[in-house]
Specification:
By secondary structure, the chain is of the alpha+beta class. Helix content is 22%, strand content 35%. A hairpin with a 7-residue loop joins strand 12 and strand 13.
Length: 265
């Protein structure tokens, strides 16, 4: 017996509520799925863009600290090579022509210490790439590594005669050359960083086959990679420009960076 004033749901009303609740639930699920998918796509897009930006910043930073006149391109402008500077000091006495060759350079004061992880060389007035990448006993770069360093003396591993004095009396302590190259390794096409392969090892357009290699960015559009070096003039420093594109699932990120390189040896 139903008491007076008590009411319930009819079957029709219950069905209507269930249908409406189902529609709302389905719409909410699709909204959440689309939101999550959009978040994942955005995160992936930002990650790929960040890889390109990080490579651009890393290469720019290294090029700015390269040995003057050491930046050059090869392999159809798909590689760029340079010599990293570890320290720069002023010398008071150095075996510069016409003085005889010697095994030491007297510096004003240096705080640099020899490292076990890299090989160090000395350079005075590097005016051309030829004087850097083909070192001998009388080039701007020593062909023997530095064997000892004190606060006032750089001891060379062999007698050397530098061809010209630096107007600023500056001596550089440098390491083995480094290059960035577009290459395909184990089926992965990308831009690789090569280091520790030494002077005189890489010839012509060959990519180093020794030393250290690390992948910096993949999914690179091979035809987009180009490095260009504009030599310095009397009114401006040298410029290095690099261009490449990263393709992720059809979305292409274009990187175009220009770096000013100080050329005051």
């Amino acid at each position: 017996m139903v008491k007076k004033g008590m009411r319930g749901f009819t079957l029709v009303e219950l069905i209507i509520v269930i249908v409406i609740s189902g529609i709302i639930a389905a719409g909410s699920a699709r909204f959440i799925a689309y939101t999550a998918s959009g978040y994942v796509a955005t995160a992936t897009r930002q990650g790929n863009a960040a890889m390109g930006v990080i490579l651009s910043q890393k290469l720019s930073r290294e090029l700015r600290s390269a040995l003057p006149n050491s930046v050059r391109t090869f392999n159809s402008d798909e590689c760029i090579e340079f010599v990293p500077v570890l320290s720069a000091d002023r010398y008071s006495v150095a075996p510069v022509a016409p003085a005889a060759a010697a095994t030491s350079v007297t510096v004003v004061n240096t705080s640099y210490s020899l490292s076990a992880s890299v090989t160090e060389y000395a350079a005075i007035y590097p005016s051309s790439a030829a004087a850097i990448y083909s070192p001998s006993t009388n080039t701007a770069l020593t062909n023997a590594q530095i064997s000892g360093i004190t606060s006032t003396t750089l001891t060379l591993g062999a007698s050397h005669q530098f061809p010209a004095d630096s107007p600023m009396r500056r001596v550089y302590i440098v390491s083995d050359p480094v290059c960035y190259c577009l290459n395909t390794v184990s089926g992965i096409e990308g831009i690789f960083r090569y280091s520790g392969y030494g002077f005189g090892v890489r010839t012509g357009d060959s990519i180093p086959s020794t030393g250290n290699r690390s992948l910096l960015v993949n999914n690179v559009v091979g035809s987009s990679v180009e490095f260009e070096v504009t030599p310095a003039t009397l009114t401006r420093n040298a410029l290095a420009e690099f261009v490449f594109e990263v393709n992720d699932g059809g979305e292409v990120f274009h990187i175009d960076q220009e770096v000013q390189i100080r050329n005051a040896p």
